[in-house]
Design goal:
Helix 6 packs across helix 9 and helix 10 runs antiparallel to helix 11. An 8-stranded mixed β-sheet has the order 7-5-6-4-1-2-3-8. Strands 9-10 form a two-stranded antiparallel ribbon. The protein is of the alpha/beta class and about 350 residues long. The protein has 2 domains: about 240 residues, Alpha-Beta Complex (Spore Coat Polysaccharide Biosynthesis Protein SpsA, Chain A), CATH 3.90.550.10; about 70 residues. It is elongated, with a radius of gyration of 27 Å.
């Protein structure tokens, strides 16, 4: 009986002898710098992809100001697509744009900082064979980092996402699972941290090489945005806590009213309102604080859904390629659009 490793080994042997022609793969980058080293790295990646896959595309999402720097890549690398977007669009919006524009059967959304540490071809094969989301993660686990990530993991679990600081930013998934992720209420966050959903199987791709950890203050704004999104998704839990606390406060208020009435009926010497005022001020301050927090997070979530419109985030596509036409030409297939017969072989 063949195991998965045997299957992968046989597949790799086949790929080494002849590029696969049964799938189209997409490689997406939203943080690709316009440097000579980066251009050399993407050319090398394109050559390795071409030796394994007959049909592939590379997608770059860049700022609309300065996209001319990427035009040499369009001339040097076939089937590369460059999308320009507004400069104020953050990193995660660009990842979402790249994922929505990808047409591959298997899609990788990668980070340029990790391009030299991860075997993209193996990730694509693993995602395609196992039909699962594959997320790159560090093989060496630091105890301090794992301890620090515990609150973040708990926060992500409460928000419904699989969060871990040891996971890298590169993720691969088949088209069917990518479509489900894009249908999530917050696909930007779901593309970074997969939702806790049994319909979305998740496996880890352990990276043996030492991927540098940028530290807490690297890209601080990006991480604050992620924490804010996770807190927004905790709004239902917080609102439930507010409801329970308000119920408890209501019961306490009624009980205290009965107690006050009893004191007023049975006692003659009463301090002039100090106890009542102090207690009610403390309870009111606590209740108002929790209520405002829950309402603000809930309103942020509502506004996030109302204002979500990704169509106006794309400025323009610099170059257009016809991969489907190329596939039809390479496979010697003619499309008869006028007649009732959909396909006709030219030979």
């Amino acid at each position: 009986m063949l195991t998965l490793d045997d299957l992968m080994g046989n597949t790799n042997l086949t790929i080494n002898s002849k590029p696969r022609e049964d799938i189209l793969v997409s490689i997406c980058f939203s943080d690709f710098p316009a440097t000579k080293a980066a251009f050399a790295a993407i050319r090398d990646l394109a050559q390795r992809l071409d030796s394994h896959f007959r049909f592939r595309e590379i997608i770059l999402v860049v700022d609309e100001n300065g996209y001319e720097c990427y035009l040499p890549l369009v001339e040097q690398i076939a089937d590369i697509r460059v999308f320009t977007t507004r400069q104020n669009n953050n990193y995660y919006i660009r990842r979402l744009i790249a994922a929505e524009e990808a047409i591959g059967d298997v899609v990788i959304i990668g980070s340029f900082d990790e391009i030299t540490h991860i075997d993209f071809i193996q990730m694509l094969e693993q995602a395609g064979v196992q039909n699962a989301i594959v997320i790159a993660t560090r093989s060496d686990r630091h105890s301090l980092r794992s301890w620090l990530s515990t609150p973040i993991i708990a926060l992500g679990r409460a928000a419904g996402f699989k969060v871990n600081l040891n996971n890298l930013q590169t993720i691969a998934m088949p088209r069917s699972l990518l479509n489900q992720v894009l249908l999530h209420s917050d696909p930007e966050l779901a593309l970074r941290f997969p939702p806790r959903d049994p319909r979305l199987p998740l496996i880890y791709f352990y990276v043996d090489s030492s991927v540098p950890f940028k530290g807490v203050f690297y890209q601080f704004k990006r991480r604050v945005q992620l924490i804010q999104k996770l807190l927004v998704y905790m709004a239902p839990i917080l609102l439930m806590i507010v409801s329970l606390s308000s119920t408890v406060l209501m019961l306490l208020g009624l009980s205290y009213a009965v107690y006050t009435l009893g004191v007023w009926v049975f006692l003659d010497n009463i301090a002039p309102g100090w106890l009542t005022t102090s207690f009610m001020l403390s309870v009111s301050a606590t209740f108002i604080g929790i209520s405002i927090l829950g309402l603000s997070l809930g309103l942020q979530q509502v506004l996030n859904h109302v204002s979500k419109n990704n169509l106006d985030k794309i400025a323009n596509e610099v170059n257009r390629i016809d991969l489907f036409g190329k596939m039809a030409s390479d496979l010697n297939v003619d499309l008869n659009r006028d007649g009732p017969h959909p396909v006709k072989d030219r030979t």
